[in-house]
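Hey, I'm writing a tutorial for new members on how sequence and structure tokens pair up, and I'd like a real worked example in the thread rather than a made-up one. If someone can provide the structure for the chain below, I'll link this post from the tutorial.
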Amino acid sequence: MLMRGLKLLVLASMCTGMAAGVAAAAQNPFIGEWKLNPLKSRMPDEMKIESKGGNTYSFNFDGTPEIIVADGTDQPGVQGTTLAVKADGPDSWIVERKIGGKLLIRATWKLSKDGSTLTDFFREFVPDGSTMSMDYVYQRNGGGSGIVADWRSIKETMNSPSTLQVKAYQGDGLTFIMTPLLLVPKNVKFDGKDYPSPDGSTSSIRQVDEHTLEMTDKAGGKVVDTQEIVISPDGKTLMITVHAAGQREPNVYAFERG
């Protein structure tokens, strides 16, 4: 969950090379504006929380544990961020992640009375001043009590509209703009090369068949995810299935032509 603001950028970066070379840019079926259909999309998430004694906990959102004292203060986190956690009642927690001193994510966790589920009201603050809103419902997996558990999401609700714009770029390439996830346009050409993104990651793409593409994203030279990108025969629906390294279930994004 607390890495979701960073993980969602993968969705933006995965769209950077989608269909250049499938056809001439003017005839490319991927060009246009696409709107995310949240009812047909799934973004499963998992987080593991362990007690380290006293008021100290290990929070593992993305494979790298962060040891945090739950006193509400900003403490060093992953990827140059800080993480702050505090109890806001017997069954409620406030969690904030910042980068460069600026608030990136604020989440309110609510534990059910029987302790079996956890609701996460997740808000990410986008650089353009807008807010991305998602609500998650997690189910306890295995043992643990209170907030301590291996939590796996069983429902994810995207409250904020998300669009993907695909435009022609220099004849044989494409420009992709994801709102609100990625406000800076990304340009690529379909030549099999790894193209760099502003965050230092790279993406490459290959054509599987007429309606299917496969993209590979890397960070530090290592594969972080692969995506299957499928456009419907009528050109009205775009399905993107993301298999992220270390993630049990794929993310499935359903886009419809705007």
